Amino acid sequence: NGRGAGGLQHPRWVRINTLKTNLEKELSSTFAGYEKTTDLRQVMSVPPPTKLYFLDPHIPNLLALPPRIDLSRTTAYTSGRIIFQDKASCFPAYLLDPKPEDGDVVDGCAAPGNKTTHLAAILVERAAQEGAVGSHLDVIAFERDRLRTKTLEKMIKLASADKVVSIKGASDFLNANPNAQEFENVGAILLDPSCSGTGIVGRDDALTIHLPEMNPTANGNTKSAHGKKRKRDGEEKAAAQSSVPLQLELDDSVEEESPAEDQLTERLTALATFQLRILTHAMKFPNARKITYSTCSIHFEENEDVVFQALSSPIAKQHGWRILQREEQVSGMKDWPRRGVFNVENSDITAEFTPDERKDVLEACIRCDKATEDGTMGFFVAAFSRDKDAIQKPS
Ligand code: SAM
């Protein structure tokens, strides 16, 4: 149930797609007649007030609106000028802070593409600010799943990110050779791998978003081709929550999915093993200087523990990777109050870090809690960094 304290409901988060428009233009067209509020709780109130918007103080170009305001039939939405994207889901690209001088940017787990288009928008905006218009910008988007690649392609096109994004469709990021020539300019990597999806806000908050032209099988529909209900795994739910132009309808299968505790532990172990693999794979790209790792999971095992394990891995040590400290993070992210948590019982890495080191890492980790006055889904993100002199030539 997404109703938090005091009869609040999850807001509708809307990211203004600066590849196509800008905040001022949308405020005076799509949101003409909307009143501005500086109190997020007002837009989250039940019963919902009328036309109100809240301009987010942490993420640029992000608005919160009362959840029942239906924008799905506006041309702003159907033409990709606005994108429905939870605030938490905007953290990774913003925290990665890609700049034209960083070189190529990789999105390792891209579909349906919300973070990919956000990366592209930030890069293009940065290039304009730096007077580097026309400079070569490339976001390389990997997606393993064939059907989800189709959704990704549509999303990239709709958002006008296709000039900047090259899609490696039906392509496993783990099979990408970090030392291949085509990746020699990769300087920044965003990783948002499949996860348990336990941070996703419950069905009471689910809104049905319609966009014609979308492939029903690729868009989070919970019925199989034979009409038989199948369980969606975390990554599908994650994608649905990312609020692309998708039909988002949470159904009974959500409840059916609550596994017994030992099943959950088993599942978390399997997911964390995969997540750590993907993160340490990214650490092998010879010229990468920054990585973000995110999940929409609430579990320590998929979040802080993966970060601790990655930092203490031989690969991180060999390649000189460290956590991006809180004070080094972009404004908005360093001001965000919810930070990492530690679960001693579920971790065997305590011996690797002194209490001070552990504290610093947790302080660097960013969490979002669902069903709070923040109005976000449950989410986790951390960034890694390495200094130029830590970069080694591949041996
Ligand atoms: N970042 C996306 C967004 O914000 O719209 C959501 C990503 S979703 C949580 C994870 C995606 O990663 C899924 O589409 C899944 O198919 C893909 N994936 C999982 N493992 C992968 C791998 N090894 N290589 C490439 N894609 C992968």
What does the model show?
By secondary structure, the protein is an alpha/beta fold. Helices cover 27% and strands 14% of the residues. The protein is built from 12 helices and 13 strands. The chain has helices at residues 23-28, 40-44, 75-78, 91-96, 114-129, 146-158, 234-241, 253-256, 261-282, 304-311, 314-319, 355-364; strands at residues 12-16, 35-37, 52-55, 62-65, 82-84, 104-107, 139-142, 165-168, 186-191, 290-295, 322-323, 366-368, 379-385. The strands form 2 sheets. Strands 6, 7, 8, 9, 10, 11, 12 and 13 form an 8-stranded mixed sheet that branches. Strand 6, helix 5 and strand 7 (139-142) form a beta-alpha-beta unit. The longest helix has 22 residues, at 261-282. The chain is globular and about 55 Å long. Mean pLDDT is 85; it is low at 1-5 and 204-256. It binds S-adenosylmethionine. S-adenosylmethionine (SAM) is lined by residues 89, 109-115, 142-145, 148, 172-174, 192-194, 235, 238-239, 242, 278. S-adenosylmethionine (SAM) binds at residues 89, 109-115, 142-145, 148, 172-174, 192-194, 235, 238-239, 242, 278.
